[in-house]
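call fold target=3'-Phosphoadenosine 5'-phosphosulfate (PAPS) 3'-phosphatase
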Amino acid sequence: MYLQPVVSNRQATVFHRLLFNITIIKDAAFGEPFLRSFSLPSSGQTFLIAILLISSDELQHRFTKLQPLIRKAGQHVTHMRKMNQATVTYKSDGSPVTRADEWANEFLKHEISTLFPEDVIIGEEDERKEYPAGSKLVWYLDPIDGTSSFVKGGSDYYVLAGLSCEGQPVLGLHYHPKTDRLIYGWTGHGAKSITGDTSPEPLEAKMPAWSQESRIFIKSYIAELREQVKGLGITRARYLPGMVDMVGPLFGKSEGFVSYRTTAYWDLVAPAAIMAAAGFQHSGTPPNGQAPLLFNDGKWTTTFYYCLPPNTPDTFIASLYEIRQTFETEER
């Protein structure tokens, strides 16, 4: 990858006019760079250019408002379970949902909509999840990620809140009620962790040279597909208690994540924003001319997503897309 810095809308516009037929996002209120890749046909090289999206100060403001709310939601659902108030019912797909899920969903939606009335908010437990494609700011909420563990009395459940700007994950909060640990990150700030009343602790993923030692979470129900990914020269990472899989690299538990399962945006945006803040690349900024996944496309699920270190070879990512294409073709 070659880095082409763009530090202002003017420079971005000049770069656009000279090299690429792309649309540069412009908004006077936004000012923090995000990286998107483009290929220069004459050389075949892939460049990452910075496009101005949303200021770090604005994201910090939103984090400051959200932090106590996500903690309150996590603590209250735990209290509801303790008091036997988390009545369980089942959705049409057979998955469990509790009164605690519904309460946290409504609580967070109400509070965020009051604070930021212009933002779109999509919660897992919403009856209607439609929203206008191309929406600038979209929140995705998972009031209890890990409802099965919650129902069984386990501790592997989390409250997730993620914000996308122009389709890119830019702010993520991941709260674990059992340990009172909040993992968070936003564009221009990096990833950090707070446990209880302690001071924030910076989280930096170790970035070893890409090798066959790389441990990648591979999410797929198809054994043959998983074997093909492993055949690219990596080791399959194993389940992590205490956190969602995608943030494993921040704790030295893995090096990356790829999913071929149908996955909801509320499961992806928060951890993807945290990992993007830590410097990871993802499906929203693909190389090799692949179409980016944008979290404001009017949908709320995807059948493919990856989050990998910045030094991941383009050839590896291209192979992930080829495997996806192969199995999509076979399923038709």
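return ok
The longest strand covers residues 137-145. The chain is about 30% helix and 25% strand.
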